[in-house]
Amino acid sequence: GNSVAGAPADPCPPPTAEVPVAFDLRGSGFGHGVGMSQYGALGQARAGATSAAILAHYYPGAVLTPAQVDVPIRVSLSNGSGSFALRGEPAQGDGGSLSLSIDGNETVVGPNEIVRVRNAGGVVAVTRGGAAGTDAAVGQGSNVTVRWSGTRDPGSAGGAPGVVNATQATDATVATRLGSDGHRYRYGTLEITPTANGQVRVINTLALGDEYILGVAEMPSSWPAAALEAQAIASRSFAMAKYGRGRVDPACGCHVSATENDQVFAGWNKEKSAGGGAWRQAVMSTMTSNGGGSAGTGAPTGLILTHDGKPATAYFHSSSGGRTQDPAEVWGSSVGFTSVVDDPWSLDPAINPYANWTVSVAQQRVAQVFGLPAVSNLEVTARTASGAAKEIRATAPTGATAAITGSTARSAFGLRSTHLNAIGPSGATVSAVVQPGVTPVAGQPSGAITPAAPPLPGLALLSDAAPSVKVGAQVKFSGALSPAQSRVTVYRQRKIGKSWQIVGKARTNAKGEYKMAFKIPEKGNYTYRTVVLNKKKKLKLASNELVLSAGKKLAQKPAPTSCKKGGCDCPDCAGVSALPVAKS
Questions:
Q1: Are 144 and 272 in the same domain?
Q2: How many C-beta neighbours within 10 Å does residue 235 have?
Q3: pTM, whole model, 2 decimals?
Q4: Domain check: are 351 and 396 in the same one?
Q5: Tens of pLDDT along 486-520?
Q6: How many domains are there within the chain?
Q7: Which of 19, 42, 258, 406 suits a disulfide with 265, CB 3.0-4.6 Å?
């Protein structure tokens, strides 16, 4: 055995319980579930529905409206880099020259010559030539405008169609990055400015209605025309709503980002990819009058969805679990143009590859996310109007329970959506020590324990307190932000009535971990969570909720020195204290 010779037997060994090695979570759909289901649009298009009919189904409160869409939208291409590499390339023929305007002073660079832009002490330094684009200085300034041949405003770069290849790069990665696929832009201009934190900001400004939408890569170009047209109109509406809010976001200097945070903008690569001609046709067929710009029409008006006379933020997602979601149940606020509608096409495996999926989550991960020592049962205890999981509750062998939202579960467990159809144990059971702060590990001998698993994506919260605490007792919270980020402010919130109020804060360390301690001031029930806020002080991440009940005042008692026969004389003797119960 593992006992030490001559050592007395532990009079109060830690208890064990049989728990599943893992849990299988079975669900349907992919994405947040709000607005148009893209696979639903595919199913309807295959059945002969028009783009107008598809949009009317998913946005019943919106009106299809011709609108002035020839406006300059600012798209953020940079994501925290101090150095960018640029290269003009021909789209066809002999195009590809660049015009570099540094605080109004223009320099023309020929096709395929490498240009570098860096933040150099608060200004943008521009160099050119050689394998790394650093052979010769061009100049420096507070604003660099890059134009290229064949656009609406090419400067002195010429009229032959060209593209700009623009990517984050260091001296060592210039050749690899510029030689890789993607990051090529056919339309508009680039604006490059320095940021206060030593980086450069790169913005592609181009016509929203056609030039920008031609580069949106949110649906395969091989899909039927009606689905592509519906996507073009939805994406244009989304962008117009963002643009129409009347200001540039100061955090990025943009209206939208090029990532899935808004909608994916792939630029020229979308249009020139296989089937790109079909996407171009869908975009242009949803424009309603012609002008004469570099996109081929320069059309100043195009179709969008409106609600109460304003552009509708036409949310869309890959596929639902059979019914789309109410925005109020996903993000906390309703919109008047979309809610819960049937989406049977998303449940057809012949249409949607995400109609059915299973994610297996290890016991130790489930236990960590719920803040329990081990989990014996997992179930959906509340659902949204569409049938998606609103609350998931875990039960420990001790009887303690904890709950998280469906959205938290999706992030923490890597689920494709919150539409969970069933949850059940996976594989055999494992004997686990039921002890706070540790989690069972499948395949280890009975009684073996290991530290909790690394933090999962999202925000985790653990407590050293039992659900019933004494007034005046010190409670210690700890947790982790994943992926790990240092110096992030994590706020402790207490639920008072239906609202959450900030009552404390801490900062994460280099490992993304945080700790906070506080005392319970008076009798009552206390519901806590921790959150991370975005730059606008809006909720970005929320942890699981923990509930504490405070009773009598704290009294000092000597630590237990012995155990009664057949059991412990107090919970702490065996290291078994029930963990907090979380309530929504």
A1: no
A2: 24
A3: 0.73
A4: yes
A5: 889 999 998 887 788 899 999 998 878 889 988 88
A6: 4
A7: 258
